[in-house]
Design brief:
D-amino Acid Aminotransferase, Chain A, domain 1; 24% strand; binds adenosine-5'-diphosphate; binds magnesium ion
């Protein structure tokens, strides 16, 4: 799809839903979640969040993220059972309602990052022993780790804390048996993700998984997997060249939209935000389409005959 087509559909976005028969509604940052005792309906909207608020709506984003996630659920189901039950629409996933574990299972394959919680920041500050793994001397920024590392963080607290599996057990958040199983599965998923991504010209840098327990206390992969919202990717083709030149790798990057808001308003305190320029919104949509097409090897197709909310409503009424 070209930029011109994208630009003609900037207002054709799925903003929010309010269905009455799907269960209790919770509007998340990006998804609308409807919960019934045995199943949840996750509707991926086109909301784009940053600074803890919605900053824009990106055409096709919801359906693309949902499709990417489904691609990965399909390609990992031999490793662990996932929550997928039914896909009535490109943007909708009906899933098994599970009891979410209280941690985010973060796995990192490269030493990178700029934030206070990033591996590179800790490493630069001299930290080597992370509890469940020790990093060797002499690592360089953006280099691949010999093996992926597991750096879980808390999930249901206002500010996420990174803590080691031992600390998770000590705080009574999970049993040792369970956290060991989660670490093993998360690393296996990540290695599979890296392998498939690389075959398609992408490097999976790091990611976050969520797990839950079903009614039999069986571990299930829930939420989303390896989407550009839960993971970071670099382009594999330019990686080595850029590293050799001392440059930063080429990201699948949303930062330019964030920067525009920082430059044009105070996104932390302003009550209402200005509308981002059409060119930037369209460019971000183009990037989502590009990463979808690279990963899945499919051409992205969108149903232009209905508005997204009409389509979603029709898909649900066919159930
Ligand atoms: N199978 C599942 N069972 C129960 N809860 C789930 C399941 N899959 C995902 N969730 C939860 O649904 C929510 C998805 O909403 P999301 O848009 O990611 O918003 P947020 O991340 O702000 O909570 C998350 O809280 C996630 O933990
Ligand atoms: Mg989430």
């Amino acid at each position: 799809m070209n930029i011109k087509t994208i630009k003609e559909h900037l207002n054709d976005v799925l903003r929010v839903t309010d269905f009455k028969n799907l269960g209790e509604r919770k509007v998340g940052k990006v998804r609308d979640v409807y919960t019934k005792p045995d199943q949840i309906t996750l509707i991926s909207t086109d909301r784009h969040s940053s600074f803890d608020r919605i900053i824009a709506h990106i055409p096709f984003k919801g359906e693309i993220l949902n499709q990417i996630s489904l691609f990965w659920f399909n390609n990992t189901k031999d490793i662990i059972q996932n929550h997928v039950l039914n896909i009535p629409d490109q943007a909708i996933l009906i899933a098994k309602n599970c009891k979410p574990l209280p941690i985010e299972a973060i796995v990192r394959g490269y030493i990178t990052g700029v934030t206070s919680t990033s591996l590179w920041t800790h490493y630069q500050d001299g930290k080597r022993d992370f509890g469940n793994f020790v990093l060797p001397e002499g690592l360089k920024k953006n280099h691949k780790l010999d093996a992926p590392v597991f750096t879980p963080s808390t999930k249901f607290e206002e500010h996420d804390r990174t803590l080691s599996p031992d600390e998770i057990v000590a705080e009574g958040l999970m049993t040792r048996e369970l956290i060991i199983e989660v670490e093993k599965v998360a690393k296996e998923l990540f290695l599979r993700g890296q392998k498939i991504a690389l075959e398609r010209g992408l490097i999976l840098i790091d990611t976050k998984y969520e797990f839950g327990l079903d009614e039999n206390n069986k571990l299930i992969l829930i939420d989303e997997i390896h989407t550009p919202d839960s993971s970071r990717y670099w382009k594999a083709t330019s990686y080595q060249d850029r590293i050799n030149k001392g440059e930063e790798p080429e990201y699948f990057d949303k930062e330019f939209l964030r920067m525009w808001f920082k430059d044009n308003c105070d996104p932390y305190t302003d009550e209402t935000l200005p509308e981002a320029p059409a060119d930037l919104i369209a460019e971000l949509a183009r990037r989502y389409i590009e990463i979808f097409e690279m990963l899945t090897g499919k051409t992205f197709k969108h149903d232009f005959t209905q508005t997204p909310i009409e389509r979603v409503a029709a898909s649900l009424s066919n159930l």
